[in-house]
Amino acid sequence: MGPRRARVAFFAGCIANVAFARLNESTIRVLTSNGCEVVVPKGQLCCGALSAHAGIRDVTRELAGTNLAVFLRENFDAIVTNAAGCGSTLKEYDHLFSPEEPEFAPAREFSAKVRDVTEFLAALGLAVKLKPLPLRVTYQDSCHLLHGQKIREAPRTLLRAIPGLEFVELPGRKSAAAPPESTTSRKRKRLSNCWRKKCNTPIHARPDHRHRQSRMPLATACRSRDPPYQSASPPRRRTPRPRHPLSNS
Question: Strands 6-10 and 36-39: what pairing?
């Protein structure tokens, strides 16, 4: 794999690490293939997005405090996540504390290091020669990635770097995931556009974006890049599973 280019901490997530463990494994393989030493800190908890959205600020602050202590124990070049919703919350940890509180400075240090995996890899640059992946694909922007983190080009840059991959934009490409009241109609329109453009695989940045009304296969950005790095499927390994914030165990 060559010399180490970066040392990063991976935020495994709570729901993602249970429901999308293979995505986490793919993410780590892509990072290590590009010269990154990847550490999955033990003791990390939920990012706090769900409690923040629900307005339960004290729970969010408690989760953030634990994650700050866990991730700032060592020096990392970046704190990487593959879930856009988590990343948006992690990048705003400094908003949870006032400047007078002792957690404020660590929260600012933490948030400054958080990177979406596509953002991090696009800036770092791909270090290995990729194998061809003969697919015609499109990309669906995540609300949290496009609007929350202002990241649009990084996923597209990485997809275009894969040999044999034909990337096409869809009509209405600047709009992200639909709000609840328009989910069904916009979902049908997007899938119709995918079929019209003859895309094998729609790719997205959030593990939970699932189009269940379609038989069309779906891939996340990292899993779409994982196959060009592999000659054979490695044995399945799980990253350490963070405790659920509401669990007593």
Answer: parallel
Exposed e or buried b per residue across 69-98, where buried means at least 16 C-beta atoms within 10 angstroms of its C-beta: ebbbeeebbbbbbbbbbbbbbbbbbbebbe
- Counting as low any pLDDT under 50, the low residues of the chain are 178, 180-181, 195, 209-218, 231-239, 242-249
Summarised one tens digit per residue, pLDDT across range 172-228 is 655 555 454 455 555 555 555 554 555 666 565 555 544 333 433 445 555 555 666
The total of other beta-carbon atoms located within 10 Å of residue 235's CB is: 5
Look at the chain and count its residues: 249
Exposed/middle/buried for residue 27 (C-beta within 10 Å: 0-12, 13-18, 19+): buried
Give the Cβ contact number of residue 183 at 10 Å.
11
Number of compact structural domains in the chain: 2
Whether 28 and 103 map to the same domain: the answer is: yes
How far apart are the C-alpha atoms of 102 and 119, rounded to whole Å? 29
Q: Cα-flanking dihedrals φ and ψ of residue 116, to 5°?
A: -65, 145
Where residue 16 sits, what CATH number does that domain have? 3.40.50
| Residue 186 structural domain | 131-229
Neighbours of 43 (CB within 10 A): 13
User: How big, in percent rounded to 5, are the helix, strand and coil portions of the chain?
Assistant: 45, 10, 45
Task: Note the helical H segments in the chain.
Answer: 15-19, 21-33, 49-53, 57-71, 84-90, 104-113, 117-124, 143, 153-160, 183-196, 221-225
Q: What is the DSSP letter of 144?
A: I
Q: In whole angstroms, what is the distance from residue 195 CA to residue 22 CA?
A: 27
In a domain, 189, yes or no: yes
What pLDDT shows up at residue 235?
Answer: 42
